[in-house]
């Protein structure tokens, strides 16, 4: 199971690094026929007016690959429910409800921090670099989670995953909306939320299979 999860994370990382960047606003000469507001923009920008970037519709495969980060975020949210059945005795947490609570909520606290940091990164670096950073964080978190010898180590790993979750919860919808064809934007805009829900469902299904075939109380 760990190898499957690692391959999925690696696929997310590779796909995020292959995504094309959305265009940034650029300066271009103002056309001859302008409105009063355009003339004001012209005078304030020293002869050039800021023109909104054109939309660049992308194939559905790009939009789907960008949404894979949301799938991983949903998986990290739900998988801990079944994993705790084995982690509690393995890490000696039978009488430590506070640490168990921290393991569960570490993703949430990380997501709060990630959502606070993301707007600045989105503005200065762009959508695709933000997705690349979140993919790397997911990959690091997966490796640390698999290695975790102590509860504190696992809390740190899930906190990093939470930061990535907070980032993709903002970056993915923005990227999808900016790169979707106008006529299909409403449909494609549902991809991130669909992926989150699918990730949670997949994590529950994997937990159930582990309990069914590996045993557990």
TrEMBL record:
Major localisation: membrane
Ranges annotated as spanning the membrane: 63-86, 98-118, 153-176, 188-211
Record domain Major facilitator superfamily (MFS) profile: where: 62-217
Subcellular localization, as worded in the UniProt entry: Membrane
Cellular component, GO annotation: membrane
Organism: Triparma laevis f. inornata
InterPro entries: MFS_dom, MFS_sugar_transport-like, MFS_trans_sf, Myo-inositol_Transporter, Sugar/inositol_transpt, Sugar_transporter_CS
Signal peptide: 1-16
Family under the similarity heading: Belongs to the major facilitator superfamily. Sugar transporter (TC 2.A.1.1) family.
Keyword set, alphabetical order: Membrane, Signal, Transmembrane, Transmembrane helix, Transport
Subunit structure: Homodimer.
SUPFAM superfamilies per UniProt: MFS general substrate transporter (SSF103473)
Keyword Mitochondrion on entry: no
Source species, domain of life: Eukaryota
Catalyzed reaction equations: D-fructose(out) = D-fructose(in); D-xylose(out) = D-xylose(in); D-glucose(out) = D-glucose(in); D-glucosamine(out) = D-glucosamine(in)
Membrane topology: Multi-pass membrane protein
GO molecular function, one term: transmembrane transporter activity
Name of the protein: Hexose transporter 1
